[in-house]
Amino acid sequence: MPIQKIELLAPARTADSGIVAIQSGADAVYIGAPRFSARAAVGNTVQDIERLSKFAHQFHARVYVALNTILFDHELEIVRKLIYELAETGMDALIVQDMGILELDLPPLELHASTQTHNYDPEKIKFLENVGFSRVVLARELTLEQIRKIRAVTSVELESFVHGALCVSLSGQCYMSEAQGGRSGNRGVCAQPCRKMYDLIDSEGKVIERNKHLLSLKDLDLSDHVGDLVLAGVSSLKIEGRLKDDNYLKNSTVHYRRKLDDFFNQYTDYGQLSSGFSISGFEPDTSLTFSRGASNYFINGRNSGMTSFDTPKSAGEFVGVVNRCKGRILEIEPVKDLNNNDGLTWFDTGGTLNGVKVNLADGNRITLSEPVNIIPGTRLYRNYHHKFSEMVRNSDPVRKIAIQIQVSEDESGLNFIVTDEEGLRISNHFQLEMVEARDSQKAEATFLEQMAKSGDTIFEIRHVGVTWKKPWFMPISVINGIRRSLLGEFVMFRISKHPKGKVFRHNREARWFSNHVDYTGNVSNQLAKSFYFSHGAESVVPAIEVSKDYQGKRLMSMKHCLKFQLGYCPRVKDTPLPSWKEPLYLMDGDKKFRLEFDCKSCLMNLYHL
After folding, report:
1. Cα–Cα distance for residue pair 496/154, rounded to 1 Å
2. Given this model, what pLDDT does residue 1 score?
3. Which of 15, 65, 72 is nearest to 38 (CA)?
4. Residue 519, Cβ neighbours under 10 Å: how many?
């Protein structure tokens, strides 16, 4: 039975970041297209995507390009031309949201359905598979049991987020940023209103919560569920973070590479998708780079540890309690060792997160970069660990592929066979002037030593075997030239053997599972509208970004529920009755949003008034 290959998928802000991720152990990276990516701030040139693809393919790692915004009619021809340019880069798949793309004249390529296509229900995922998508990026809210049920009725590749920021709206299907300020998440320019401060009031104006980040979630961390996800049917584990820095990228990639490798050691039916091994140069700790706090979200069902009402920022790890504060001097009761240049945070009496830099750490006495006023008893956090950050920053992860070289002689020279860990091999013959060595023992030792040097190539030469009647004298320059030629040839051979993806073929017989597509279908162009009609829909409502009709519309549908988080969920046994009167509202200054609690579906919906 063949080994089932599992992919670790990392974000790439730039081509150089993508190379860092692959060196750190990623099997694949996803990177923004020059335009029309869900992270508009991180577009990349076609030339950079080609450079990244060439680097990745040496290791049989993959490059996926995100072109996952919704599109307007006047943009479709621009997008079509761009897709043809991207196809020439050698990239491995395109991640899309807009179904209008499927109606374009496309080059041969693989398509993945972005999580923004709202991939939560088995019937939706089955439809996307039937249409021709090779992979579906699952909604982050799914439990393991729901993923198992999806796997039972589909065969499409399933990709699941395991780490990083969470969108509070179900499967990223959010219209709040568009409605509040015309910055649509579906167009790659989300203003993140979910991270803002709100008041929660009832129908009579009673304030239930004031100045809290009531929609702000902690960050996803499924470190302890990597194996569970694979066994549930997920074949790609995805790290979020195309806006994050390289320290976050290295740290999280090395961390999840080790988690997956530990799983493979236990479950030998599964293995790494790409080739080689990585040497990181540091011990990863995901709590020490940007984190709003860790949550396993809904992987095992609803829990109370997923929100971050006090701040949407990275408060950091708890390091101690303040005993005394005078100007720039803190005396603390530490639970962690602090370092010069660490960044400290604390919440003041008004609940605001403050920060300051450490100039000098001396046991329990800390000298700060500026005077502060912190009340004794205040809990102190560290959101910048200088020593760890410098260690990660200065590390230079490197990835190698193990090979062996076998040498034999014939009348005219030497035959070489190079074989890698996957069994790929090349052979070559070098015609040489065979000069008998004066010192045969030294000649053989020199030959083996020089042939085993891999230098800064992608290879680690684990073994050199030679079979000859007697050693021959060969100048070191000749041996080195042969080795360089062999390794260069083997790189090109490996690239030529890079596995090809499944080419998208539009199955027009696939049936949409409803007769209606509402505004949450995000239909923003005529081709997308035609797509749904051709697959069985009888009516199609345009996207909010087209209609600009926000009044009374549901802007968010959330698994996150304020009733549950505040301790008043009616589905929990012995829950007290709240004193408020519904409906409840979120207030952002003079802006008011109505909350509706669909307890049967276990959802909280937010409406524009």
Report:
1. 31
2. 73
3. 65
4. 19
Q: Whose CA is closest to 282, among 251, 244, 261?
A: 251
Q: Say whether domain 315-394 belongs to CATH 3.20.20.100.
A: no
Residue type, 192: Q
Distance of alpha carbon 24 from the chain centroid: 14
Q: Which of the four CATH numbers 3.40.50.720, 3.20.20.70, 3.30.1490.20, 3.90.650.10 does domain 4-166+218-274 have?
A: 3.20.20.70
| Cβ contact 107:84 at 8 Å | yes
Whether 371 contacts 327, CB under 8 Å? yes
Closest listed residue to residue 584, CA positions, set 603, 562, 566, 569: 562
62 within 8 A of 54, measured Cβ to Cβ: no
Helix (H, G, I), strand (E, B) or coil at 224: helix
Is the peptide bond preceding residue 583 cis, with omega within 30 degrees of 0? yes
The three state secondary structure string of 391-411 is: HHHHCCCEEEEEEEEEEEEEC
Round the CA-based radius of gyration of the chain to a whole number and report it.
Answer: 28
What pTM did the predictor assign?
0.96
The whole-angstrom separation of Cα 19 and Cα 14 is: 9
Q: Tell me: the pLDDT tens digits for 530-581?
A: 999 999 999 999 999 999 999 999 999 999 999 999 999 999 988 898 999 9
Displacement of CA 172 from its chain's centroid (Å) = 15
Give the integer Cα–Cα distance in Å for 210 and 234: 41
pLDDT at 145 over 80: yes
Q: Which of 315, 252, 256 is nearest to 286 (CA)?
A: 252
